[in-house]
Amino acid sequence: MNAVAPARRRGGLFGRGHPHRGPLLLGLPTIVFLLVLFAVPVVQFMLLPVAEGTFEPYVKALTGRLYLQVIWNTFEIAAYVTILAFLLGYPVAYFLTVAPPFWRLIGFFCVLMPFWTSILVRTYAWMVILGRRGVLNEALLALDIIDKPMVLLHSMPTVLLGMVHVLMPFFIFPVYGVMQRIDMNLVAAARGLGAPDWRVFLRVYFPLTLPGVLSGATLVFILSMGFFITPALLGGGRVTMIAVLIEQYVNKFLNWEFAGALSAVLLAATLIVYGLMKWALRGDKRW
Fold first, then answer.
1. Domain of 228?
2. Residue 183: in which H helix or E strand, if any?
3. Could you tell me if 74 and 239 are in contact, meaning their C-beta atoms sit under 8 angstroms apart?
4. d(CA 255, CA 56)
5. Number of domains in the chain
6. Is residue 267 part of a domain?
7. pTM value > 0.85
8. pLDDT tens string for the chain (287 positions)?
9. Is residue 237 one of the residues assigned to a domain?
């Protein structure tokens, strides 16, 4: 018996005796597709300066004051979006967990509805609502609340509003999945021991949801760092993120080498954030 098992494993990862051979073979076409049409072109794009025999674009991207400011702005906006997604999405996830079936269905419909519309369409919708002659300004003027239209577009709050609108479902669903698995007998036991509701939440319920919170925060933060359409349209050039800068160097300045260097910096920053979140999640059993 001991001699047969090693023989079956000689075929390697895709050998007949490998326990995961079926799933690996099923996923192989998708893996090849992503490697050929996504990973390889992206790596080639980021290595354009190396192909030209210079590392100057990388040095410029990491040392130039303007580019460091844009990188900082990107991290700052991603952090704000993540915090807002937490503040707005956590109560929604809790509502979906405890609501009756009918209201849970309504809640899921409201959360999923943004996925049924293109990001570009949603961004233009915010421009129609928040423009100088948009729905909001016209309503406030009609009610005599303001004397002249307010300037709402092309600002940081507008960009944050649009990004949170798009990304909040990516926070809600991981948290909701964790909340669904919480044993509510623990909450009942804490209340039975005389703990007030706020202490039950802070000491029992919220710590149990931390794995979902960190997973959702990771998704939102990483997706925010690479956002382009919403900051480009709602920011109007006044709110610049690194993805917007990459697009400008590709289409406006035709400097593909420096755009590739900026892309490499963005990917490295994303991997660092992902590594930190992975490290934070490694001990989720202690919660």
1. 73-286
2. none
3. no
4. 13
5. 1
6. yes
7. no
8. 444 444 444 555 556 666 666 777 788 888 888 888 888 888 888 888 887 788 888 888 888 888 889 989 999 999 999 999 999 999 999 999 989 989 999 999 888 887 788 888 888 889 889 888 888 888 888 888 888 888 888 888 999 999 999 999 999 999 999 999 988 888 888 888 888 888 888 888 999 999 899 889 989 999 999 888 888 888 887 888 988 889 888 888 888 888 999 999 888 888 888 888 778 766 544 44
9. yes
- For residue 181 the two structure tokens come to 């698995």
- Per the listing, tokens 């570009």 go with 120
What is the distance of C-alpha 132 from the center of its chain?
A: 30
φ, ψ for residue 31, nearest 5 deg: -60, -45
Q: Are 156 and 239 in contact (CB under 8 A)?
A: yes
What 81-85 contacts at long range (C-beta under 8 Å, 24+ apart), as own/partner pairs, is: 81/160, 81/163, 81/164, 81/167, 81/220, 81/221, 81/224, 82/171, 82/217, 82/220, 82/221, 82/224, 84/160, 84/164, 85/164, 85/167, 85/168, 85/170, 85/171, 85/216, 85/217, 85/220
Neighbours of 120 (CB within 10 A): 11
In what helix (H) or strand (E) does residue 228 lie, and over which residues does it extend?
Answer: none
252: CATH = 1.10.3720.10
Residue 272 forms part of a structural domain: yes
- Considering the domain boundaries, does residue 275 fall inside one? yes
In Å, the largest CA–CA distance within the chain is 88
Helix axes 101-112, 156-180, angle to 10 degrees: 140
